[in-house]
């Protein structure tokens, strides 16, 4: 299986164009002002009744992708996050193009799945930082679960599929599929649960959780959009705990990516 996976990766076409988009073309003026006014530069929204995206950037391909998942999944739970990361001065580029080296660097951060181990979020209920993922590793396949090193790319692939074993404090030890896509102006992946998720009792069936994380270069900054959608059971007494876990998931992902930007990409 390992030989198949890496042979498939090496067979990709590396002809991706590289573009950047001004942030003003992605967000409404009111949303941009709101985002820029926040100390951490992030917004998180949670919905549980007939959820519909409210933070989705104005990128046609990303909007279509998220819309297709929403229609197919028919979720009853949704958490969105929007984050604007300002680049250090020496890394700022023209909005006419997304620097190839930076774009490849961003992609390598997104496939560094083992670096999710130990990522933390702030628990409002406990008023302290907590670990989200106790364990996170790329594996060869859901059946064999042999650990693999995080892949590293010198050129951008158009698409990529990875499997990961991840253990979190709410849903335990599970297998996820990550599908990556690189387009001229956005890099994104969708995470799908291969195994069912339980919290004392089963709450999310196989394939009923989809999380999308998208990164768009804006020249002087990077815009990150994340959305988790789930068709989940709401057992009496556990609904609030499950909702809180999805909000924590979004915050943990933003903390992870912000840390990777600061410590690995823009240092």
Could you please describe the fold and organization of this structure?
With 267 residues, this protein is of the alpha+beta class. The protein has one domain: START domain (Alpha-D-Glucose-1,6-Bisphosphate, Chain A, domain 4). The protein is 26% helix and 35% strand. The chain contains five helices and twelve strands. The chain has helices at residues 2-10, 29-37, 60-73, 100-110, 239-265, and strands spanning 42-47, 77-86, 120-123, 128-131, 133-139, 147-148, 159-168, 172-182, 187-193, 197-199, 201-217, 221-232. Helix 4 crosses helix 5 (239-265). The termini are far apart. The relative contact order is 0.20. Mean pLDDT is 89; it is low at 1-15.
């Amino acid at each position: 299986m390992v030989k198949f996976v890496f042979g498939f990766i090496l067979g990709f076409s590396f002809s991706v164009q590289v573009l950047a988009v001004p942030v003003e073309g992605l967000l409404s003026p009111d949303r941009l002002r709101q985002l820029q006014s926040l100390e951490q530069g992030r917004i998180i929204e949670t919905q549980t009744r007939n959820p519909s995206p409210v933070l989705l950037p104005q990128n046609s391909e990303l909007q279509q992708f998220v819309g297709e998942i929403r229609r197919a999944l028919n979720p009853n739970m949704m958490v969105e996050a929007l984050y604007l990361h300002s680049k250090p001065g020496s890394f700022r580029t023209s909005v006419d193009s997304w620097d190839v080296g930076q774009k490849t660097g961003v992609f390598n951060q997104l496939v560094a799945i083992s670096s999710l181990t130990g990522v933390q979020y702030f628990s409002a209920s406990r008023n302290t930082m907590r670990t989200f993922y106790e364990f996170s590793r790329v594996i060869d396949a859901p059946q064999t679960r042999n650990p693999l090193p995080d892949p590293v790319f010198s050129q951008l692939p158009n698409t990529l599929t990875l499997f990961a074993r991840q253990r979190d404090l709410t849903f335990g030890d599970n297998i996820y599929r990550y599908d990556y896509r690189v387009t001229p102006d956005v890099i994104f992946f969708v995470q799908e649960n291969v195994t069912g998720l339980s919290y004392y009792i089963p709450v999310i069936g196989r394939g009923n959780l989809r999380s999308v994380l998208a990164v768009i270069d804006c020249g002087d900054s990077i815009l990150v959009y994340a959305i988790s959608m789930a068709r989940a059971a709401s057992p009496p007494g556990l609904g609030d705990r499950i909702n809180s876990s999805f909000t924590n998931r979004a915050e943990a992902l933003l903390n992870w990516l912000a840390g990777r930007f600061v410590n690995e990409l823009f240092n």
